[in-house]
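User: Just a sanity check before I run the rest of the batch. Below are the structure tokens for the first item. I only need the designed sequence back.
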């Protein structure tokens, strides 16, 4: 149970704006063989999606504070992100698994008031797909 909790926490933190790596934790746990791979994938995906939803909520519910000094982006940066998202749309959420840009994409989707019902399945597919490919590579080549 401790292993699964660690996997969940690593995946959750990695999906927020806090820099962290969940992929290395997943690979290590797959190689350790203490839990079934499908269970590790389920826990990692759940934690990562919930972490992404924190980003979405930050964008969605804190957008009224964009002009405050403590907000992590300037009003100009927020406006550029809005224009970019308006041009490219919700399809960009399929890139939520990408390092560095994936987490801000989800935050911007919240700023753009992307509906929860659309964010959850798209982000889940993206995050689960990444972990499945990583698990396959680990099992196949390591």
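Assistant: Here's the designed sequence for the first item:
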């Amino acid at each position: 149970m401790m292993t699964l909790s660690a996997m969940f926490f690593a995946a959750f933190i990695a999906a927020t704006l806090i820099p962290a790596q969940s992929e290395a934790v997943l690979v290590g746990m797959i190689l350790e063989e203490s839990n079934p791979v499908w269970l590790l994938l389920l826990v990692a995906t759940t934690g990562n999606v919930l972490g992404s939803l924190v980003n979405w909520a930050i964008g969605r519910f804190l957008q009224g504070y964009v002009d405050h000094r403590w907000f992590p982006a300037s009003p100009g940066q927020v406006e550029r992100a809005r224009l970019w998202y308006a041009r490219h749309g919700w399809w960009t959420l399929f890139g939520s698994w990408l390092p560095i840009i994936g987490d801000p994409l989800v935050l911007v989707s919240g700023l753009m008031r992307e509906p929860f019902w659309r964010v959850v399945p798209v982000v889940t597919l993206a995050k689960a797909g990444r972990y499945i490919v990583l698990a396959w590579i680990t099992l196949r080549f390591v």
